[in-house]
Amino acid sequence: MNGKNAIPDISYFRLSLMDFLRESHPELLTDNAFISARAEAAAETYSQDIQGGGNHIEAAEQANAILFVGLHFSKHDTLVNILWNEFANVIPEDEAKSWAIRLFPECENVFSQYFLTDDFAYEPEYELLYTELTGVIAIYFEEHGIQ
After folding, report:
1. 73 with 117: CB under 8 angstroms?
2. Domain residue spans in the chain?
3. How confident is the model over 28-77, as pLDDT tens digits?
4. CATH T-level fold of 10-68
């Protein structure tokens, strides 16, 4: 995107999404079809909003809503937070993200038992999920001699 009035192309939205996925949804980074579809939809939304007389700020907000829908709750970030909060004496903070990736397959069964929406972290069930995941991680560490 060049200049104040430039219209971003699909690569702008693709890169924005990939940066976000790298940070909060690393399990989706290899899903090229998902990334392409979202980037195309966001670029199209932006373009249509501008063509319809919208301003760049509103168009960007609409495009971002399309780009990030369903991604506001992050399994990865949840695991990182659990590691930071519950296992700080076991896993150094700077290693929590790589451990979250490693633990993801162990925890997927627990995640699959919940209907995870963008607002799930604010739902009462989040505490139960958090507790269950903490247990799974504790058992994993115990079984693998990680103290």
Report:
1. yes
2. 10-68, 75-143
3. 999 999 999 999 999 999 999 999 999 999 999 999 999 999 999 999 99
4. Helicase, Ruva Protein; domain 3 (1.10.8)
Average pLDDT over residues 131-138: 98
Q: Is the dihedral of CA 112, 114, 120, 121 positive or negative?
A: negative
Q: How many CB atoms lie within 10 A of CB 59?
A: 20
Indicate the angle between helix axes 10-24 and 32-51, nearest 10 degrees.
Answer: 130
Residue 7's pLDDT is 63
User: Could you give the CA distance from residue 64 to residue 41 in angstroms, rounded to a whole number?
Assistant: 10
What's 75-143's CATH class?
A: mainly alpha
- Which residues lie closer than 8 Å to 26 by C-beta, 6 or more apart? 76, 101
Q: Give which of 108, 34, 35, 119 is closest to 75, Cα–Cα.
A: 108
Residue for token pair 């609409």? 62
Q: Global pTM?
A: 0.86
Please state, in angstroms and rounded to a whole number, the distance separating the CA atoms of residues 72 and 141: 28
Same fold, 10-68 and 75-143: yes
Per-residue pLDDT reduced to its tens digit, 94-121: 999 999 999 999 999 999 999 999 999 9
